[in-house]
Amino acid sequence: MVLSKYSGNSSGRNIKKLSVLIKLALCFPLIAEGQTNVQEVPQTSGGPLAPEKINFNSGFLHGSNIDISRFAEGNVTFPGIYRVTVSVNGKTKNSLKISFVQLNSDANAKPCFNQLQLNQLGIVPDEKRAKQLLLMRPDGAEQCYVLDRWIEGSTSQYNSGDFELNLQVPQLYVRHHSDDYVDPSLWESGQTAGFVDYAANLWQISQGAAKGNSNNTANLGVTAGFNVGEWRLRKRTNFNWSNQSPSSIQNNYTYAQRDITPLRSVMTVGETNSNGELFDSFSMRGVQLQTDDRMLPTEMRSYSPILRGVAETNAKITVTQRGQILYESIVPPGPFAITDVGAIGYGGDLTMTITEADGRIRQQLIPFSAPPMLLREGSSRFSLALGQLKEEQIYDHPDLFQATYHRGLMNYWTMYGGTLIGEHYKAFGLGQAFNTPIGGISFDVINARSVLANNTQRLGNSYQVNYSKYLDPTNTNITLAAYRYSSKGYYSFREMALARNTSLIKERSEADNVYINYRTQNRFTASVNQRIDDNKSLWFSGSLASYWGGKTDSRQYSISFNHSLGRFGYSITGSRSRAGNGNDENIIQLAVNIPIGGNYNQKPLFNSLYSTVSNSNQSGTTFQTNASGYQGDQGELTYGVGANVGNRANDKAVSGNIQYQSSIAQVGLSATANDFNTQFAGSLRGSAVAHKGGVTLGPSINDAPFAIIEAKGAAGARLLNGQGAKVNRFGYAIQPSLYPYRENVIQLDAKGLPDTVDVLDNEKHIFPRQGAAIPVVMNTITGTPMILTLRDSSHSYLPIGTDLMDANGKSQSVVGQGGQAFIRGWDPAQGPLLATVGEEKLKCIAKDAAPVNKAVSEDLSMVQLEVTCLRN
């Protein structure tokens, strides 16, 4: 038997009915009559006792036509939709809205489930049985069945008092992936939509005693996208302007992309970046097909970097990879962590540039490469690429073909290899990864043959060892330790192409080091985190690199001790880095974070004081302090003021910053001033989405999935975890930053809405694909709320429990005590309400509609109305 879902409105009606009946039970405890013989109650094997039957005298209830026989069966569960806590085989899973339906003559409604809910609970029904059930209705995924129809031998038990639903399912049908894994059949591609995501930054430094000289720069990063069917089109462009250099436009990429679900992979056509797990990653133009780790269960996903640093002033953070800007933002003084860089490919060092308010520039090289490539037994990953090298710095764009494959042969052994064949180039790589008692270790070797300018041939090898380990006895986490050696004759594919264009490289080498072809000889990177106890940790990272061609070795070390005591915390950090001129800079810093004000529930003007004392062998000692605070229910407004003092004259400065996250954009301003310089910066980030309902402005969405919320009449309602997004006056909002291939909960906060608006379902669950634009409709009812008093032709109240329906047969309310019913938005002039009492069909009309007209014209919050119900 197929059971359709009930609407959210029905649950409300049934709950009201239940509350009325509970009141009846409390008011008339002596109405029940009859006798109970315990010996006569039949015993059931392994199941609950059958409830004793109780008879009620309906004569005590107003209205003799009410059927109350179902209450003779004990604690009855009514049909409807209830939010319940669901447990599977004793393990609590989710809180879900479950439909309870009436089956045949059974007094208790039974829970039924659709395929979406089963997936949320980690239940995988028998494939053959599921297909049979879904074929019974074309929209089977939206239909529900009782549990034993999906899985034979399964049972359910509902505790209506605590709203707990316990399911017993054979273990064979319980998924063993992580709890957040979503079956691919539920992934959503969304609707056709276009968007523009933008991030604008202005930066000005006025220099000199008269502040006459200024350096003004502006950057606008725009990502334009269009989704149609399964395809996603994207174009990323950076516009750069400066009053001291020519303006430039940088086209980062243009591509069309779609998922290939059976292969758990994504196909990209256009400008993209090659897989860098074995060979060095490079920009290319062509076609690429590769495994997308985000489609896999969480435990099988790959590594991505987090960029950490400390800003001494209002600083501009710029992250680049191979000369392309990946990320740019302005941060206030203090430590920062960047988690949404979106690094290109699986490898390729990142350069993080910190431009302080006084003009000082610090650069940090972040090695970015894949960790030991261990895979689970039987799992695999692959990548295929066909096209040509995309390198703006050279004229030659050689054709290429690259293929890599990884296979987990055993739990502790993974083999991988690949080939890269192109014009003037051939390379083959082979590697192994092992899970050993001392950690995860991988080793690979690449043999490459290159043809350089004048047909000069080079043959060389590159060897790489990676290691990672978490040491339980000492709580030591070695995140990534890697060593790579490349012989003098080894060239990567990109290095070969650059070497064949030596004239262009020499032409620009003095202007920009990006174009100089220094090849790495040795490289070692390591990152170690040592947890001392629950609130103390020691962190170390370092990198060493030497190069062929005479470039100065690069070295960078950093060690930090962190201690937190509730809201108070401090850290001690020491670092050494070698600049391009070969000089080492040594820095030691003490940072203290002091809470200001009362507890978390209070909102003082400032709630945190962050101070640092740092000493550098190149710039001396600097003291910096910054007070910060926030306002708003979700911290929409953040701000800070600060000052710093140092050995140098221009180290004495004051600063301030403010940032506001509105419903349509994020805007930020900051300023710093000292005796010699003044700095000003401004930023604006947001998006505009074009969809079938119009154009909606919202927070920045980057290239992540997003939801287009439709909630008619709910203007001003806020999206929880929506980065400040609110429903606009047209009834739309944008929910940014969804997780692809995972369950996302969309919640609408109806607090503050007028009484004329009722949000029927303020929570939806969606499962977007990468880059998808998911339409989400939040059902609402708008109109003047009314309390109706309903009487029949004899001036008697309508019986309790009588359903009131519109002309389409849709239930609008249920009659309670004293013939009263609550209803919203009914316009008596548009038609009567319909009611059924016993065998009689009644038509209910308002005696006087003037109160309704007055309520609408004067915007009253409630209206009371006398209604007469006559035979239809």
UniProtKB/TrEMBL annotation:
<dbReference type="InterPro" id="IPR043142">
    <property type="entry name" value="PapC-like_C_sf"/>
</dbReference>
<dbReference type="InterPro" id="IPR037224">
    <property type="entry name" value="PapC_N_sf"/>
</dbReference>
<feature type="domain" description="PapC-like C-terminal">
    <location>
        <begin position="788"/>
        <end position="845"/>
    </location>
</feature>
<keyword id="KW-1134">Transmembrane beta strand</keyword>
<dbReference type="InterPro" id="IPR025885">
    <property type="entry name" value="PapC_N"/>
</dbReference>
<dbReference type="InterPro" id="IPR018030">
    <property type="entry name" value="Fimbrial_membr_usher_CS"/>
</dbReference>
<dbReference type="GO" id="GO:0015473">
    <property type="term" value="F:fimbrial usher porin activity"/>
</dbReference>
<dbReference type="Pfam" id="PF00577">
    <property type="entry name" value="Usher"/>
</dbReference>
<dbReference type="InterPro" id="IPR042186">
    <property type="entry name" value="FimD_plug_dom"/>
</dbReference>
<keyword id="KW-0813">Transport</keyword>
<keyword id="KW-1029">Fimbrium biogenesis</keyword>
<dbReference type="InterPro" id="IPR000015">
    <property type="entry name" value="Fimb_usher"/>
</dbReference>
<keyword id="KW-0812">Transmembrane</keyword>
<keyword id="KW-0732">Signal</keyword>
<dbReference type="GO" id="GO:0009297">
    <property type="term" value="P:pilus assembly"/>
</dbReference>
<keyword id="KW-0998">Cell outer membrane</keyword>
<keyword id="KW-0472">Membrane</keyword>
<feature type="domain" description="PapC N-terminal">
    <location>
        <begin position="55"/>
        <end position="201"/>
    </location>
</feature>
<dbReference type="InterPro" id="IPR025949">
    <property type="entry name" value="PapC-like_C"/>
</dbReference>
<comment type="similarity">
    <text>Belongs to the fimbrial export usher family.</text>
</comment>
<dbReference type="Pfam" id="PF13954">
    <property type="entry name" value="PapC_N"/>
</dbReference>
<protein>
    <submittedName>
        <fullName>Outer membrane usher protein</fullName>
    </submittedName>
</protein>
<dbReference type="Pfam" id="PF13953">
    <property type="entry name" value="PapC_C"/>
</dbReference>
<dbReference type="GO" id="GO:0009279">
    <property type="term" value="C:cell outer membrane"/>
</dbReference>
